[in-house]
Amino acid sequence: MVQQEVIAPETEEDHEPEELVEVPLVDSKVGEIPQWRLMLMRFRRSKLAVVSGIVLILIYLAAIFAPFLSPNDPAKVDQNYKFAKPSSWTWSGGPAICRTTQEIDPINITTTYKTDCNNAIPIHFFGKGFDYKVLGIIPTDRHLMTVSDGKLLIFGADSNGRDIFSRTIYGARVSMTIGLLGVAIATILGSIIGTISGYARGATDNIIQRFIEVIISIPTLPLWATMAAVLPQDMTVTKRYFVMTIILSLVAWTGLARQVRGKVMAYKSADYVAAARSAGSSHMRIITTHLLPNATSHIVAVAMLAVPATILAETALSFLGIGMLDPAISWGVLLQDASKLDVLTQYPWVLIPGLFVILAITCFQLLGDGIRDAVDPYS
């Protein structure tokens, strides 16, 4: 027989009163992170993008304070320093440069320079130089580095004896800003036209897309060259700068318009757009409240990647002599001396502005990749 265990009924004495545990109230905001903070956290993961952003900030700061950083007037012609090589640095009780003397070779009819480091020229920090205005407001003549005698040439001189270092810093004002301004205009055009195309659909979308295909099918550089070549040669530097900006932006908007169109078409079929339409929202309110804000992060990433192409376009046109022209100072204008092979082999320092073009383009590309990964919700 199986013996069954008899379980006595539980009484109230067998139960001890349980202690009440206070559960702290949970803040409803815990775990919620703003979208911009998530993007910033993703962006910081890319070390190359962060470093590139810092380098670009330094370049723009150098362009803003170009007169202070320039030891010489970038527009001053001095045939005594025609194609002079970079100054040789030495130490003579402090930083100094070797004295340079120009000599003419009567046989080869070339200009050579002899350096004398025994008679060095001291470098003065925050010394006096050519007059300028800080931010165009405060007049001053103080510069970071100056010399009392001779000429401080950090990157050497060009065919007219002008300081390449000073002209490179001044050239950043045109080359680096024309890219931003041109892309800003292209971004506005692309966002508006792409939104109209994706939201209206039908015949409007068909006409816009065929027009974009016609523009894309035209080779970019010949188109830019043709538009720039028809400009009057006697235009002022300021007018030519803004006209070149508009010319460069007339083609750059097409790619962004197509991408914005695809985003708008995807968002238009979302439930929240249908709910807004059912609630009586107007088309303009739906576009400005729901469609464009959701596409903003993508627009910013695409625009950032478009800046290098605009800078390269301005440099190429100016190098070919149909973009910015002398006396304007841009990186493309500075590289015109490097177009001659005999000059390039004898005076290789005329290519230094090209290194800054490469640096700026590389930094913009890395920064654009970092921003694109940061705004990607699936990263």
TrEMBL record:
Keywords: Membrane, Transmembrane, Transmembrane helix, Transport
SUPFAM superfamilies in the cross-refs: MetI-like
Subcellular location: Cell membrane; Membrane
InterPro entries associated with the record: MetI-like, MetI-like_sf, OppC_N
CDD domains according to UniProt: TM_PBP2
A Pfam family reported for this protein in Swiss-Prot or TrEMBL: BPD_transp_1
One of the record's GO cellular component terms: plasma membrane
Residue ranges of domain ABC transmembrane type-1 in the record: 172-368
Transmembrane segments: 48-69, 178-199, 211-229, 241-260, 347-367
Major site of localization recorded for this protein: membrane
Gene Ontology terms: biological process: transmembrane transport
Topological type in the membrane: Multi-pass membrane protein
Entry's family note: Belongs to the binding-protein-dependent transport system permease family.
Protein name in UniProt: ABC transporter permease
Organism: Microlunatus elymi
